[in-house]
Write a structure and sequence with these properties.
Blueprint (H helix, E strand, L loop, with lengths): L2 E5 L3 H13 L3 E5 L2 H10 L4 E5 L7 H10 L6 E6 L3 H9 L4 E5 L3 H20 L6 E6 L2 E4 L4 E4 L2 E3 L3 H12 L5 E2 H9 L8 H14 L9 E4 L3 E4 L5 E6 L1
Parallel strand pairs: 1-2, 1-3, 3-4, 4-5
Antiparallel strand pairs: 6-7, 6-13, 7-8, 8-9, 10-12, 11-12
Helix pairs in contact: 2-3, 4-8, 6-8, 7-8
Length: 241
């Protein structure tokens, strides 16, 4: 049963989304404050965090920033007010995976949640001994079925969007993608205008997989265009049974 944490101080909204999450057979925990939500998110594993920006005490942006700073990679669906355009951008740049603007359609909310939980379920269901599609680039290994990344024998914890970026680039070495391309392919067309979000995710990804952030080895910058995966490296594609 998916575990979902709602961090929302508006009781009516929290109750409304709780009802629909219950219909999706989710187990729900709720916090009305940023501080309380942060404590709950760090004390227990969740499959999804629904995070409002305007919270008493610590706001949602700070909660998101601290969670990502602690390498907690749980998908975060952020709720924003219509007038908080800058907060949407900041939320995505510090590691939120998706956002909805209040007032939002319940149908849209359910669709977004289903998409996130579906990905989480697929990842959990892959048994350890199943066939695995693997990309191996020197000491970097990407196990696609399990959405698992290993570097120098150690698992690297990536957020869903960080993983999606890495996989897309590694699958097409040498191909340069503009920030707009990556935004559309990874986040979707509804995020048009948030190209700087790509920069932030690439930077975080580099801090996790590059030995020297200032001299990237895997993910290179194509000046004036965007980013590409280093095609001078040998990439092995394997199916391991």
């Amino acid at each position: 049963m998916p575990q979902v944490l709602i961090i929302e101080d508006d009781k009516d909204i929290a109750e409304l989304i709780s009802i629909h999450l219950t219909d999706l057979v989710c187990q729900i925990k709720h916090s009305e404050s940023g501080n309380g939500g942060l404590q709950m998110a760090t004390a227990q594993h969740f499959d999804l965090i629904i995070l409002d920006i305007m919270l008493p005490g610590m706001d949602g942006l700070e909660v998101c920033k601290r969670l990502r700073g602690q390498e907690i990679t749980t998908p975060i669906l952020m709720l924003t007010a219509k007038s908080e355009e800058i907060d949407k951008v900041l939320g995505l740049e510090i590691g939120a995976d998706d956002y909805l603007t209040k007032p939002f359609s319940i149908r849209e909310f359910v669709a977004r949640v289903k998409a996130i939980l579906r990905r989480q379920t697929i990842q959990k269901k892959v048994p350890e001994d199943s066939s695995r599609n693997i990309l191996r680039v020197e000491n970097l290994v990407i196990e696609q079925n399990k959405r698992k990344v290993v570097l120098n024998g150690n698992r690297i914890e990536l957020t869903p969007k960080e993983y999606d970026l890495l996989l897309l680039l590694a699958q097409h070495p040498g191909k340069s993608y503009s920030r707009e391309d990556l935004l559309n392919l990874i986040w979707g067309y509804e995020f048009t205008g948030y190209e700087h979000t790509v920069n932030s995710h690439i930077n975080r990804l580099r801090t996790k997989i590059e030995a020297d952030f200032a001299k990237p080895h895997y993910i290179l910058t194509t000046w004036g265009v965007g980013y590409r995966f280093n095609d001078e490296l040998t990439i092995e594609k394997q199916i391991v049974s």
